[in-house]
Design brief:
It is built from 4 helices and 6 strands, in the order ββαβαβααββ. With about 150 residues, the protein is an alpha/beta fold. It has a two-stranded parallel ribbon. The protein is globular.
């Protein structure tokens, strides 16, 4: 099976159950325009049949040689580990939904860091959360399992 195709099982009990899939993309954490409070509200859906997936650009990911980079723009770092800190902060942010997180995707901002710094932020995040990493382009097939639906 292609590593960029995932079959994800979802169990439901009744045909009346509502299954929600909420994409997470273009958060651009680190940007002045990123609204973490609104994001936390978005992922606080406590309905049992709500699932999420990320599709890249979770981070603004502007570092080092990029002319837009300013070390002072990154909180909680001693300047030699901003990527490590960013990955850990995102893992902490997403950990409440890790059991409902279908997969982690990869965007052009993360791809830039991969090329420039030889580290894959998205793959590291997926490993930290125990969620499949599917890369830059992927397919997810939802396999809905009827467990005694009425």
């Amino acid at each position: 099976m292609n590593e960029n195709i995932l079959v994800y099982p979802i169990n439901y009990k009744s045909r009346k159950d509502v299954i929600k899939i909420k994409p997470i993309m273009d958060l651009h954490k680190g940007s002045k325009t990123c609204d973490i409070k609104a994001f936390k509200k978005f992922i606080s859906d406590d309905e049992p049949d709500t699932y999420y997936y990320t599709n890249g650009d979770l981070w603004d990911a502007i570092y080092f040689r990029d002319k837009r980079f300013k070390a002072s723009g990154h909180d909680h770092t001693d300047k030699d580990d901003p990527i490590d800190k960013e990955v850990q902060e995102m893992a902490d942010l997403l950990s409440p939904i890790k059991d409902k997180l279908i997969c982690i995707g990869h965007g052009n901002h993360e791809e830039h860091i991969l090329k420039m710094c030889m580290t894959n932020m998205s793959k590291r995040l997926a490993r930290e959360l125990g969620v499949p990493f599917l890369g830059y382009s992927f397919w997810v097939r939802l396999k809905l399992n009827n467990n005694g639906a009425r």
